[in-house]
Amino acid sequence: MKRVLGLILGMILIIGNIAACSPEKETEPTVQKSKEPVIRDTNTNRENEREKERQNEDDIPTLTLVQKDFVPSNPNDMAYIEKINTALLENGIKAKLELVELPRGGYSEKLNLMLQGGNVPDMIWFRDGMDEHYMEEGLLVDLTEYINDSDVFNQSMEPYHKARIASYPYLLNIRYNTPKIALVRQDWLDALGLKPPETVDDYYGVLKAFANSDFDDNGEKDTYGITATGGTERLDAIFNGAFGMPTTWIQGDDGQYIYHKVSQNEKEKLAFYRRLREEKILDPAYITTKWDTMEEKLYTGKVGMVVGSAGKVVDIYSSKLQHAGADTMLIPLNPPKGHGGQGFAPVDVTKEQKGFAISTVSEHQALAFQVLEFMASDEGQYLDRLGFEGRDYEKDGHGIITRTEKGQEWYARFFDVPSWQSPVPLITDVAQASLDITARYYIEDKNFDIPSEHSAKWETMNNLYKEYAYKIIMGDYTMDKFDEFVNRWYEAGGNEITALANKILLK
């Protein structure tokens, strides 16, 4: 019996050893057995993951972007680019934006030097008409097919955007229509017991009352009703319509187009400006006044009315006015009604004056457009319009968003899609009212791009106008000199360009 038990125990030990050495089936690991292999496998896995991440990063194309006031030397701009890049990947767009630095100075000048030097980014922000030269050189992608195939852009573009793209399909810029609008100090109106003006005569009365006041309390006759910046363009934006010049080219009784600045309507308007200057209602220093000086005159009580862009600019002006110590707000006004009509400056639909272009030398043109498309989408607008959570806005446990004081300074780097529904108001009711007013008087311009072969003549003709207009307003020239200006304008190339205008506009 003992011998049998011994044999059985021996067989159990042999089977146990064979099972322990068998590679086909692993027994439950003990702590001692699993320690080293687990550590080695984890390190290997981490290295593999890192290598995959490096490979994935290498697979993501980099798109270079040059844009005014959006530079890699600014930490806030770089933080925003990182946020955009993360959002692109989360939305299935394998692209990485990289900002291009430009030397300080005039943006267009520095951009031109960079492009002429052969450094051409994938995406380029153009302004000041500099894009036209590079379009003629074949450097800019025609965006027509991309936009036609894009549901996002077809939904986000307003009629004026679509008209501009149809005319010039190289620049993309989705923004509100923000024409210039008259803005008046509420406290000055209240102090004088005046209502917001509605007609040209009303405007004259309000501005004259301002000029005869002394709201800066210095006892001197140095207060004016209104000022401008380097010319009459701001004044023209609100008064042209009242004097029968709703568009750049206006039709006479014979059906032919003439340039509005050589019309008798223009002569009548200049006579009105001359009266404002003679009666010390118009700031005589308007010709040398810059935009920042204009603002300073508003904030320090030197003028009671300015002309600025509708929308967010209204909030900026009002905020600065209050920071200057004025417990008041600016009121946006309807354009003055005159015997010639009523309206703001017409909307130019010949082309975008500034915007994004995609270069033809880019190896990722379709991807570049996809990035722009994303920034115009609801997801992109959420990023571009709200900024950073925790800094520019707060979100409570119920998802309610509140903008912070810092968030009031945030602005979209890409697009302001007018139809996008923000979860929180982005401008004040007053600023929104300015947009509503300008929308009521929306009119598309009758205009065309002056061909490059006529650009030198056109510049000469415009300078001729500025000279005569200023001297007539200031009293250096009599009103009769306007007729002399008209003759010289036609002799300088006006006959040729007027013929071209009728050929194009009467099609």
TrEMBL record:
Q: Where is the signal peptide?
A: 1-19
Cross-referenced InterPro entries, in alphabetical order?
Answer: Bact_solute-bd_prot1, SBP
**Biased segments, Basic and acidic residues type:** 24-57
Give me the ranges of the annotated region Disordered: 24-60
Q: Which Pfam families match?
A: SBP_bac_1
Q: Which UniProt keywords apply?
A: Cell membrane, Lipoprotein, Membrane, Palmitate, Signal
Give the PANTHER family listed for this entry: ARABINOSE-BINDING PROTEIN-RELATED, POLYGALACTURONAN_RHAMNOGALACTURONAN-BINDING PROTEIN YTCQ
Q: What is this protein called?
A: Extracellular solute-binding protein
Q: What is the lineage of its organism?
A: Bacteria, Bacillati, Bacillota, Clostridia, Lachnospirales
